[in-house]
Amino acid sequence: MRTEKEKMLAGENYDATSPELWERWQLAKRLQSEYNITPMTDTGRLSALLDLLLGSYGEHVWISAPFFVDYGENIHIGHHVEINMNCVFLDCNRITIGNYSGIGPGVHIYTVFHPTNPAERRNENAAFWNSSTAPVVIGDDVWIGGRSVILPGVTVGNGTTIGAGSVVTHSIPSGVVAVGNPCRIIRHL
Predict the structure, then answer these.
(1) How far, CA to CA in Å, does 40 sit from each of 36, 78, 85?
(2) Which of 22, 29, 91, 129 could bridge 74 with an S-S bond, Cβ 3.0-4.6 Å?
């Protein structure tokens, strides 16, 4: 039988109050709080906190505080990546960000979603709704403009720019500029 964490990562309904998930969620909240109050000049402490918080990250990664996550351990960041302040990454499934990519301020990346039918959302045994997940992949050399929202299951292809304030509801191919709500391709590069 699968654990609740295995169900979560497989995209099945899962119980977020299981001890394994609840413990990691609590640890991630503590680590992100420490990260968010650490002076940005204390790069050694910031790196040590990211080592504990994130699944993996490459060289020359900059994450401006404040930065918010669900579990942290499902976030994998390549080399030479800048993530601006006030980003929210709900990493109930894997979030992958490729090399040389930039995430603007206030970007939200969601891997978790809930049934649209209210009766299916309800979980009589917990405070949390029933949830499912799908991974998000941001390719290499991608720029996600500020205040954009990336929804579960989306892949943004290499070399693509997503305009500020976009809501990305479906995958966007490589080498384009896409903007809007819902996000649409406006130009090929």
Answers:
(1) 9, 20, 12
(2) 91
Look at residues 64, 151, 66, 133 and name the one whose alpha carbon lies nearest to residue 103.
64
pLDDT on residue 23 = 97
**Which helix or strand (DSSP H or E) is residue 43 part of?**
helix 43-53
The phi, psi pair for 43, rounded to 5°, reads: -65, -30
Quick check: 71 and 90 in contact, CB under 8 A? no
- Give the phi and the psi of residue 133 in degrees, each rounded to 5: -140, 165
User: Residue 83 phi/psi, 5° resolution?
Assistant: -120, 115
Instruction: Please give the radius of gyration of the chain, using alpha carbons only, rounded to the nearest integer.
Output: 17
Tell me the two tokens of residue 47: 């790196």
Q: Is 153 left (phi over 0), alpha (psi -120 to 50) or beta?
A: left
For the chain, the first-to-last Cα distance in angstroms comes to 47
Which phi and psi (to 5°) does residue 6 adopt? -60, -40
pLDDT digits (tens, 9 = 90+) for 98-127: 999 999 999 999 999 998 998 888 887 777
